[in-house]
Design a protein that fits this description.
There is one protein chain. It contains 4 helices and 5 strands. It is an alpha+beta fold. It has one domain: Gcn5-related N-acetyltransferase (GNAT) (Aminopeptidase). Helix 3 links the parallel strand 4 and strand 5.
Length: 143
Amino acid sequence: MKIRQMTIDDYDDIIVLLQETPGVTVRDADSKEATSKYLHRNPGLSFVAAVESKIVGCVMCGHDGRRGYLQHLVVNQDNRNQGIGGKLFMSCIRALKKSGISKTHIFVLKTNDLANNYWSNKDWQLREDINMYSYNSSAKEDA
């Protein structure tokens, strides 16, 4: 198994992996165009895990200059419980640290029991002291 930087050439394999993973919601923001923009804006921060030439895991990562953000940490069901998820997210943490970013967040749907169980068993802290609000300008006609 090899961890390497994600490229847009990995997109077709990654989107299938995301779609096949229970609890993961694929949205317009996960389009190939949007993913390409994200990777370009956050070079060297997103990673894939490959066994031979097959992608078995991925994680996308970016930052706003102060905080890092992980999205879509996913490992193929047949390859779980081998430490791949930890290697992927630690690749992000190390890359963020090189950029001067020491605090990282991940947002997990409350209904995604698998992911919530995963993160609660790592050194990540569940935040219950803040509320997250979202605004989608693409859903507004006058925006």
